[in-house]
């Protein structure tokens, strides 16, 4: 048991409500973005993981040679995980960690890339979207890994982010 009259909370007693507001949502066209003011960050604070998430699941990935991945990006849906990194093809796993297949490949031809900057799995429509670094097209694959017609962007986009809304078809 711990008692104090100082009114100062220990790091174990602090919650997210005790943290200073350092970022806000701003409207950017039709989208919302988070704007962080790093000048407002004054201190380090320990926050328990339970204050951020309700549930944590650690999934061991299959380890056969064709399933190996390096640290990089990840896209997650209800039933799938897509992992990849620079100069490595994307790998699709199910939620049990079983390797299903490679998505696309390395190169400059149709359905090929060298580095993916953003990705999304659209289970509703059975699609996987990959946004390569410095590309003028959003790559589209079916869940079997077959390349479909890409979405042409009109300009080359460095560090492009995207969002597919399967319910609105946009």
Entry keywords:
single chain; 170 residues; mainly beta; four-stranded antiparallel β-sheet; 0% helix
Descriptive overview:
With 170 residues, the protein is an all-beta fold. The protein contains no helices and 12 strands. The protein has strands spanning 23-28, 31-36, 73-76, 80-85, 88-94, 99-103, 105-106, 112-113, 116-122, 127-132, 135-142, 147-157. Strands 3-4-5-6 form a 4-stranded antiparallel sheet, with no helix packed on it. Strand 9 (116-122) and strand 10 (127-132) form a beta hairpin. It is globular and about 50 Å long.
On the 0 to 100 scale, the average pLDDT is: 86
Listing every helix as H and every strand as E from the N terminus to the C terminus, the arrangement reads EEEEEEEEEEEE
Helix content: under 10%
Q: Terminal Cα separation, in Å?
A: 55 Å
> Count of helices?
0
Assess the beta-strand content as a share of residues: 35-45%
Largest sheet: 4 strands, antiparallel
Q: Detail the poorly predicted runs.
A: 1-7
Alpha-beta classification: mainly beta
Q: Total number of β-strand segments?
A: 12
Oligomer: single chain
Q: How are the strands of the largest sheet arranged? A: 3-4-5-6
Q: Given the C-alpha coordinates, what overall shape results?
A: globular
Radius of gyration: 21 Å
